[in-house]
Specification:
There is one protein chain. The protein has eleven helices and ten strands. By secondary structure, the protein is of the alpha/beta class. Strand 4 (about 190) and strand 5 (about 195) form a beta hairpin. The longest helix is centred in the first third of the chain and has 20 residues, at about 80-100. It binds S-adenosylmethionine. S-adenosylmethionine binds near residues 72, 74 and 122.
């Protein structure tokens, strides 16, 4: 199927409006490849038809189909390893202290949980990796704390990946990407050809649909944000708006994890860099 330059530009405008993704000119092939099936099914066999439908009467269903087709959902358990080591070694011990302080009568956030947000969680491997680390930490160093002291919020724009994340059901090859046999056997059960996450981990996670290109501070205060391998798809203006909202939402001494390839320029002044091995964590200061 042909995708003219004019049609490509029109589709990029729709995509930007729907999810903030900034598609560069050289990605013509990507739009062609990913949206061609939709042009066939929704646009009477042409990109022109799909654009007309998107411009006139696109319902939420068609919009979601475009979002699902165009987003890249690549992920794996403990992706890149180092950030998760940094989380275990330098962030979790501080979160445990915060959790203990919040149990004190008179603490201004008494009773509130430690909130960890996986802000583009795709099919769930990132939030489940975080949940596994919390469980392991509680088993070894978490005296006086329980899983109830932590809440993970996992969000994504794509309903399709969110459903898979909620199901927490993975194939053998998905499991093999990043997960040791010990963790697999400890945190998953086998159902047919799939490995399903244990309820003790799933109940720690609240899955929601959030579009990072829109205002999202309504989610409330959080202590840690993982926003990895998604900012690369946004333009400078959108990235700036997202980072500024993160800095408003993060608690005093809160942490921000970004992807290794994310080029974010200068972060809001409230962040200082904390280096751990090959990774850098950004922490809120005073
Ligand atoms: C490459 S995956 C990264 C997953 C995970 N954070 C990781 O690093 O393995 C990017 C995810 O960002 C999501 N995404 C894209 N645009 C988004 C937006 N505007 N708001 C929220 N999520 C978005 C996609 O649906 C996709 O699941």
């Amino acid at each position: 199927m042909e995708l003219s330059n004019k049609e490509f530009t029109e589709l990029c405008k729709h995509i930007y409006k729907l999810c903030g993704l900034n598609i560069k000119d050289k990605k013509h092939y990507l739009v062609l490849q990913r949206l061609e099936p939709l042009a066939v099914s929704e646009g009477n066999g042409s990109f022109k038809g799909l654009i007309e439908k998107l411009s006139s009467n696109a319902g939420p269903q068609l919009k979601d189909l475009v979002i699902e087709a165009i987003t890249t959902n690549e992920t794996s358990f403990f992706r890149d390893e180092h950030p998760f080591e940094a989380f275990r070694e330098i962030v979790l011990p501080q979160l445990a202290e915060m959790a203990k302080h919040r149990k004190h009568p008179g603490h201004h956030r008494k009773g509130s949980k430690i909130n960890i947000w996986s802000a583009a969680s795709s099919t769930g491997q990132e939030p489940y990796s975080i949940a596994m680390l919390i469980h392991e930490f509680l088993g070894s160093k978490g005296k006086g704390l329980s899983a109830e002291d932590f809440e993970i919020i996992a969000t994504d724009i794509s309903p399709k990946v969110l459903s898979k994340a909620i199901a927490g059901s993975y194939t053998d090859s998905e499991i093999k990407r990043g997960l040791s046999v010990e963790r697999r056997d400890r945190f998953f059960r086998k159902e047919g050809h799939h490995w399903v996450i244990n309820d003790s981990l799933r109940t720690m996670i609240d899955f929601k649909r959030i579009n990072l290109a829109e205002q999202f501070t309504r989610l409330g205060g959080v202590d840690v944000i993982f926003c990895r391998n998604v900012l690369i798809y946004f333009d400078e203006e959108t990235k700036g708006r997202i980072l500024s909202q993160f800095s408003q939402m993060l608690s005093e001494s809160g942490f921000l994890f970004l992807g290794a390839c994310e080029n974010v320029g200068t972060l809001p002044k409230k962040f200082k860099k904390v280096a751990y091995k090959e990774s850098v964590v950004h922490q809120i200061v005073g």
